Structures are given as C-alpha cells and as structure tokens.
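Today's session is about reading a structure prediction critically. Students often jump straight to the picture, but the first step is always the sequence itself: look for stretches that repeat, for charged clusters, for runs of hydrophobic residues. Only then move on to the predicted structure, which in these notes is written as discrete structure tokens rather than atom positions. Here is the chain we will use throughout the hour.
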Amino acid sequence: MKSLILSCILIIAGFFPIIPLKAEAANEAGFTYTIINNEATIIGYKGEPVYIEIPETLENCPVTEIRDNAFFNCSSLRQISLPATITRMGHHCFYACYSLESIVLPPALKEIGMGCFCGCSALSAVSIPDTLSVLPDSCFRACTALKEIIVPYSITEIEKFCFSGCTSLNYVSLGGQLTEIGNRAFFMCNSLESLYIPPSVGVLGIEAVGFVPATDGSDIKTDFTVLGKESSEAEKYADSNSLKFSAADDAVQAFSMQNSDSPPLHIPKILLASGILLLVICCAFAAKQLFHRN
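Below is the predicted structure for this chain, in token form.
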C-alpha cells in the first residue's frame, strides 16, 4: 500500500516540474522582487527594514522599476538607496513611510506615480532629476518636514495637490519651462511667503498657491506675495484671488526680492574698533615709509 501511494506521488509530481524562483524572490536586504523580460522590479519588502540599499542588478538583470505600493506604509524605513538604473517609480510606492528622512531620485527616472511620497512626514530633502516632465497628483503631499524644493527646467506640469500640506516649505524654485500648476498644488504651505511664477505658466488651478485652511473651507494667506511678470498669468491669478502681487522680470530678481527683508549684518563693536585701529596703524606705517624714501 505504501509503495502504491509513493508511486502516485511521484507520478503527480511529474506533471509539475520545479520552476526556478525567477518570478518572485526575497533576500535579506529587506525587499522582494520579480524578474520579467530580463528586467528586475522591486515589488515589496519583508520585515521592518530601517535602511535598504537596492543594487543596480539582481541575478544579472538591471533593476528598472519600483512597483506600485512597493513600500506602502513601511513606517520603519528611514533611508533607502536607489540605483541609477531605475526609470519608473509606481504610484504610492513610498506612501506613509513617515520615518523616511531623505531620498535622491535616480538620474534616469522618467516616470513617477501619484502619491509617491504622500505622508512622508520626516522627509526633509529630495533631489528631483531633470529627466522628469510631470510631478503628479499628491506626489509630495503632507511632507511636513520638507523645507525647500527646486523644480528642474524639464518639468512642464505640477499636478493637483502635489505639495499640498507641506507646512514647513519656505523656498520653491520653479523651472522656466513650467506651463501648468494644478488645483491646490501648494495649498496649506503655511511657511511659504512668496513664489515666483515664470511667464511660461499659462494655467493656474483653483487655489493653486497662496491659500490656507479655514473653518469654512479655505482662505487667502494674507502674508503671501505672488511674484511674476506684469500682465502675466501670475498677475491675473493674484488679482482674481485678491492676493498681493509684485512685479519681477525673472527668477534672479525674484530671489533678491524674496531676500530683501533679511536683517542687516551685525558687526560687533570690538571688531569694528579693531578694524579702525588696524587701518590707522597701516596708514601711519605707510606715511613713515614714504617719509624715509623722501
């Protein structure tokens, strides 16, 4: 009887050949991945990783993608190193990773999904490559520790809610090829006091910038100033929303205006007195040298 059962098992097993673990694999670095068409995709993680370094290749295949929701709500993750080979990051792939402190986006990145870093409340620094053309819906929403952002020249559109709720954001530089800023893209950016909107922008969505929450919905930020060229879409937006507007011909002039309220340099009295004394000594020495020559 036992031999009959064993024979049946062997026969059944013959119909299911052993498949190499190419479809999905895990490793001790804290992530799982798939390999399809000789390209590796990060699909998730295991355990509670704090630091993850993703290599450029896995099983001799380039790592080209971070899948949708790959690190969704991975609250333990503080640092992740992404290889230069990645060209796509899916939607919500780092959503609610509220311990994530900083990230450098890969230089070959061509697509980034909506809500990618939404809720990453510890994220204080991010570098955006000039290979992207769109910053999608809610991409950096509620990144409350983010203080500054430089949008590269390649970006043509910032979609709705992209930086909404970035309450610590106090400096934003927009590229000169930008054409559209979506609805509430910079809503509730409480620390942002001004924004230069380049003349290339032809569409400014509802409450795109300069608005904060109120008991009945939203209200204008009274200490906010829209900077831009006269007669531009920026000035029209400011006028139609009762926001302050100041003319600036370019980003350089806007930057100087943004920093014009900086406090004057304070020189301690002891240093000032020392400087005057040194100047007097130098003048006396020069006069003495001149007298001896004559």
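Discussion point for the tutorial: The helical segments are 2-14, 233-240, 251-258, 269-293.
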